[in-house]
Amino acid sequence: MEHIEIQRFTAADAEALADFLAGEEWPFHGSGRVDRADVLRRVAEGYYDDEEARTFWILVDGKAAGTLRLFDIGDDTPLFDLRIGAASRGRGVGTHAVQWLASYVFTEFPEAQRIEGTTRRDNAAMRRVFLRCGFAKEGHHRRAWPDAEGVLHDAVAYAILRGDWATGTVTPVEFDDEP
């Protein structure tokens, strides 16, 4: 079994973060490719670590396998961006990271009542991660997520409630409530 750990990003990691993000293809993110210079600029601007955002490395056997960016920390519903490198996909790394994230948020931020994440409809792996981690599907946004070529995909929103995390349950969403 691989050893997975989560480590907080620091500004000293800027070059490594830029190399990691620019060195991978991100098929289910907006652009698919990340510009190294943009990452370095965003680090300098506090995008990855400030009062509203924290970024973490996901390490597998001591090597960078992914990143987890938590943002809107001051809100009662923080959001996150998860990126798992191609070599580590399909090995449980994402599930481990999202379980860790829920524990971290609900332990460190008492005002957080829920955590929300959104993915493209065709990102079956991430959708399975959400469900494995106790998140409930809360929304389906038709043709809301453009890809790098401008093709619009459906977006699917998931969230976990503090109480559900604490009890290990999933409160069902009442979708059929139209008058």
From TrEMBL:
PROSITE patterns: GNAT (PS51186). The keyword Transferase applies. GO terms for cellular component: cytoplasm. It comes from the Bacteria. One of its GO terms (molecular function) is protein-N-terminal-alanine acetyltransferase activity. InterPro entries: Acyl_CoA_acyltransferase, GNAT_dom, Ribosomal_N-acetyltransferase. Residues 4-163 form the N-acetyltransferase domain. Keywords: Transferase. This is Protein N-acetyltransferase, RimJ/RimL family. It comes from Glycomyces sambucus.
